[in-house]
Prior knowledge:
Blueprint: H1 9-12, H2 25-30, H3 32-44, E1 67-69, H4 73-81, H5 91-109, H6 118-143, H7 162-165, H8 172-189, H9 204-219, H10 229-233, H11 250-264, E2 273-274, E3 307-308, H12 309-314, E4 329-331, H13 345-352, E5 363-365, H14 367-372, H15 403-408, H16 427-432, E6 433-434, E7 438-440, E8 453-455, E9 477-478, E10 504-505, H17 506-518, E11 524-527, E12 534-537, H18 541-554, H19 562-566, H20 568-582, H21 589-595, H22 599-602, E13 608-609, H23 619-622, E14 626-627, H24 646-651
Antiparallel strand pairs: 1-5, 2-3, 4-10, 6-9, 7-8, 11-12, 13-14
Helix pairs in contact: 3-5, 5-6, 6-8, 6-9, 8-9, 9-11, 9-17, 11-17, 17-18, 17-20
Amino acid sequence: MMIIAFASCADYLETEKYFKDRMSIEKAFKQRNYAENWLAHAYSFLANENADVCNKNDSWHNFADDIYTGDWSDLYKKFKNGEYDESALQSSWSACYKGIRQASEFILNIDVNEEMTEEEITDCKGQARFLRAYYYWLLLRKYGPVPVIPADDGMIDYTLSYNEIALPRNTYDECVDYITTELVQAAKELRPDREAMNIARPTRGAALAARAKVLLYAASPLVNGNQDEYANLLVDDKGKRLLSDSYDEGKWAKAAAAARDVMELGKYQIYVAHYRDFGNNDFPKTIVPPYHPEFSGKDWPSGWRNIDPFASYRALFDGELSASTNPELIFSRVQNGTAGQSGGLQWMVVHMLPRAANGWNTFGITQKQCDAYYMHDGRDIPGKDKEMGRGDGSERVTGYVTPDDVNAGRYIPLLEGTSLQYANREPRFYASVAYNGSLWTLSAATVPEHRNYRSWYYRGSPDGYSNTDHWLRTGIGCKKYVHPYDTYENATLTQIRTKTEPAIRYAEILLIYAEALNELDGSYQIPSWDGSREYTVHRDITEMKKGILPIRLRAGLPDFEPGVYAGKDEFRKKLKRERQIELMAEGHRYYDLRRWKDAPIEEVLPVYGCNTVMTAEQRDLFHTPVVVSSIPTTFSDKMWFWPISKTELKRNSRLTQNPGWQSYD
């Protein structure tokens, strides 16, 4: 049997729990049930600490400068301050390598199966190959370059000592080459579609989409020509640099072509909900975007006349749209919840819900993220980032919604007493942000007074500042993933709709395409994934619009002005902001800030929010942003990648630690 040098010998035989009589590997793989059990176990390591989008504790990478958690403050502060040590939050390393070993054994042995058809064997092999590549991707994204274990061309003798089987870290580019090569092979083996019962299994599109993600990261500044001191210190046991020291623009072209491969499948599309000319609190009437001469009079996908931008975005996350009916979903673990309170999107919703729903009222949004959302006509909000010293000199809007405003239908969906700072914002804002005075319909609540509940975050209010953990440190909440019928009233998850994890969705692929094209100066000929055609890849504004414009039109926002497309720098700023908004709370921002090398700037800025110690009688002061000192902000070089545990360093004598963290001595 192949051995993974980074787990204990007892772990290597874990799969034998499926085989009560300790049958041989060959005998086990001849039978369908045993082979399927083996593959199912390979999937099991994708959950919990290896989920892309999950609740606190399992997925701390879901918290950057955009969202935060107010409870478990000590662990959260240690994570944000880089004060965790080499033994903290390390379960993903061993889980990934266990999954890699499990998948490798399956690939090596499944061909002997006597009960599966040739097509079934090929597809199952593709699933295992995808899993193996994806585990390496999760390791690479978190820890940087890792050892790639020989698998298909021979097996390591597990009777040898650790020193004899020790393996060094491969370079970042070597890891990328291996992962992307495996994903191409997986794409050839995998089915193009899945029936509803198997929707969590990867398809050809999932393999190609994962490949595009990997290539985007490989092209990014952190690992593409990085000459910083940190990059010079990140070496293997022979002193060889693990990050490329020379910039290669062609890597951006490969990323663009990989995204194009997914687009050319013709299988995925941006999800849109139809226009509604009537509604209620749960599913309101469509808020029509301001008139625009180019887009208001055209149907989707050329405009927004026949769609509901708010409902289009909200349904992707709140459970209204199932995984099997979501044309935008490319890869998902689907139900990624765990029995404990640490994992799963349903538990994330519990942390977002207000106290009236028996929610924990602790996951919030920073003022920076709140300001990132556009006005409904595509302009910046007045006073954006003013307190951070990088605004445009404008002042924040003052005043509040009056009864006359409500009666006249102004500022929909804001209700009486809400700050006008939150008026006339883009639909994604209202689908994601629980601003002071926002409405939670909670229509499934059994207590009548809990329905159509408004959260006020003033001190003295039920959801405001208190001596418990159950209050929002910025006075700004998060309601992405929350369905109008969700409630935690009975302290069980039965009244919270199942959420589908958006590990990879088509909107991300389009954004990858636009970002990669923007970075090109030259023109490149890149073959498609299967070699059936060749793409000419260069900085083409028409092609860039194919990536960015559908995202904005779905949100009811107009295209950028021509000047934005004219230069790399301006478009790059807009692209980064679009990712910040569109992909908020989907596990991207933490890694985006690092791959762009923006973390030393964005992660150290003070976190601003409402002045939560102010009461309703001091509402003007409440809505004047202040520094939230309880949410830490810092960044040091050691935080580019996570530390490798001393246990793993002890087991593998050739394994080197990431700079800034302690090594095993």
